[in-house]
Structure formats: C-alpha cells, structure tokens
Amino acid sequence: MSVSARLLSRPKRDLTVGDRFKLELTVRHHRNSKVGEPFVPSLDPFVILDRKSVTRYVGDTLVDVHTLTMAAFATGELKIPPFIVPYPGESEVLAAASDSVPVKVASVMPKDMKDINDLKPQIQFPNFLPIWIILGLLAAAGLGYVGWRLYRRYRRIRLYGEPLPDPWDEALAALDKVPVEDWMSSGHHKRYYYTVSEVLKRYLTRRFGFPALDQTTTEILRAMKAAKTPEREGFGEFFQRADMVKYAKFLPPATEAAEVIPNARELVKATTPKPEPQADLTTKTQRHEE
C-alpha cells in the first residue's frame, strides 16, 4: 500500500494567487484490498477546483491515479499537506499518507512598488446622498435581520409548540431512539454514523453556542479550541472517525460500531453542567427570601 503525490508540468512563470495547477495523486494497493478515498483534514490555503480519477491494473496491483486541479490563495513558500488513504488492517484501521508537496506562490504586486504616501487631502463636498443611501441600506439590512429572527422564532414555536428540553437531555433522548441493531444488520453504517454525528452537532450548537450543524469537522475543532470547550479531543476523534465512514467509504469493525452510541453518550454526560451543591442552593434561597 503506497501513496505518492507530485506536481504536473506547469508554465515557466511563477504561480500567483488564484492560478490553477495540477497535482497527481497515485495510490497503489493489492487488487483485493479495499481502500478509502484520499482525503486531507485541512487544505487551507489551497482549494480543489476539479478532480479526475482513472484506474489501471499492473499484475495484482491496482493503481488509482487522481488528477486534482488546485489553486492557492496565499503567497510564499507553501506546502500541500499529505493526503491520507485509510485501509483496514487485521484488527484496526490503518492509513497511508503521501509526502507534502512544496509550492511557491508569488505576489502579483510589482517588486518596486512602494507605499502610496503622496495622496492629496480629501476634497470636501456637501453631497449627503451617498450617506443617506448607506444609512438606508443599513436600515433595510437591520429590518431584514430582525424579520428573519422573528420568522425563525415563529417557525420554531410552530414546530415545537413548547420550550425545548435542555441540550443534554435532548441529545441523550435522541441517542436512545437510534435503531442501532436494525441499521447495523442491514448494512446502513453510513446512515448510522451520520445520524449520531448530527445529534452531537446539534448538542454542541445548543450547549456551547456555535453553529456546529453548519460546520465541517475542521471548523468545529477550531471553534472548540478557541472557546476552550471541554472534551474537544474526544469530540474531534469521534467526528474524524465518522467522516471516514461517511465520506471515505470506510467500513468499521462491528466492535467499533457497537461503541458509537456509548461513546457519544459519554461525551454528552462529560460536558453536562454539574448541579450546584445543596449548601449553595440553600444560601441563594435565603437571600432571595430576604
């Protein structure tokens, strides 16, 4: 099992921000081995614009060649991070990774360009029309935002009818309703992992106040790290394993799949607020009565 990456030929001039270039990713493995699709946790500041894949056989070796059309949105001596290809071992999931590929991206600013310091003073002119236009746009945007919030509130009231339960109670109840045995016996592993991931994302959204439902795993981990959210390593490991099943077509062992719900429940319980001590509650009650 091997993974290699190389840049294909490009024009002699240096790459600049936004220029397209091609990266060839070659995966070699035995024809009887089942491997996942190559992926990388974070490509920033690179983006993949197009992907073409071909497969050929060399004896018992299967060669998958992926040609990626990419672009960079930063300057300097950059490196394309390694691409990871998961594959099952005897008792665990293994992974092979390509080497990082250096890419030099030049700035489009001329080398002899200097700061502009000789601008003339601003000419005063009593034209208030642009100001009124800007204020009108800001007011319209504010009214639109308020209307959108009111509509969401109205829709939430129509959907749920009464206040939502606490995030941890809602998450544990949703995990209890997952038909684990039915989905696992029918081979719906992707649906199983997707459902549990969505439950945890909704829990993080309601519990810690960041839009985990609309974020990728990388964005969730970045938000949790910035907010110093507890158990972020456990959540990160869970979402990364789930991504391999959802997107890399990885088939988890039965023992691992059976631990998905218990692991998710432990993460919710570990981040559930602890009840206040009884002594503190008594003191607060006495102060309130006074």
Could you characterize what this model shows?
- This protein has 290 residues and is an alpha+beta fold.
- Helices cover 42% and strands 22% of the residues.
- It contains nine helices and nine strands.
- Helix 4 runs parallel beside helix 8.
H/E series = EEEEEEEEEHHHHHHHHH
User: What is the residue-averaged pLDDT?
Assistant: 84
Strand order of the largest sheet: 1-3-5-4
Number of strands: 9
Globular, elongated, flat, extended or rod-shaped: what is the shape?
flat
* Helix/strand structural class: alpha+beta
Report strand %: 15-25%
> Any idea what the radius of gyration is?
27 Å
Which bin fits the share of residues in helices?
40-55%
Count of alpha/pi helices: 9
Q: Could you tell me how far the N terminus lies from the C terminus, measured between alpha carbons in angstroms?
A: 74 Å
Oligomer: single chain
Q: Major β-sheet, in short?
A: 4 strands, antiparallel
Low-confidence stretches: none
